Amino acid sequence: MRRWRALGSGLLAAGLTLGSGPVSAGQQAEEALSDSVRTALTAALSAPAPPSLAFVNDAAREHYQVWLSHIRPVLQRKTPDWTETQRDEFLQTLWYESKRARLAPALVLGLIEVESGFRKFAVSSSSARGYMQVMPFWTRLLAGTEAVNLFHEQTNLRFGCVILRHYLGLESGHLEMALGRYNGSRGQMAYPRAVLAAQARWQAAEP
Fold this sequence. Notes:
Elements: H1 2-7, E1 16-17, H2 35-46, E2 54-55, H3 58-78, H4 84-100, H5 105-115, H6 137-143, H7 153-170, H8 175-183, H9 190-205
Antiparallel strand pairs: 1-2
Helix pairs in contact: 3-4, 4-7, 5-9, 7-8, 8-9
């Protein structure tokens, strides 16, 4: 259980400091969590986030700005109804939450593309919600209530990223199996392949 105790404190990535696709995750299964895992996941969710990104040095800031300049036009083609401010706020939040959970931003973008097609208020037939199609049972398990607003941008991205990191831990880092768990189709390859293909497209746009 050491890796779960480390999860809450080890989510920062290098360079950053604290300070119309299918809706798919509705088959995700509710699983019993040990006390240590629940504690670690809850801590990972509840740690505060800064109102703006804080970088460890100028090089890290420049890296983010270059990434943003490459990814912004790709996102614009997928979200023509968004304002520039909405895109920049979304990408800033996604960068922060993905790096915080030690996930590649391109992976999270690919997952969102497949799960919700970047529709903030997407709801599956099983009530999975938002960009990352988070199942409401997670808010009951980790926050003690289902009243958490999973349509709130940062809340949804934080839950989704922490849950995917949790599944990667369960699967010893095997990404395809972790994605299968996220989708509720563990062992089947259609969903992981779709996400990985979308990830590759986002990676191709990166500097």
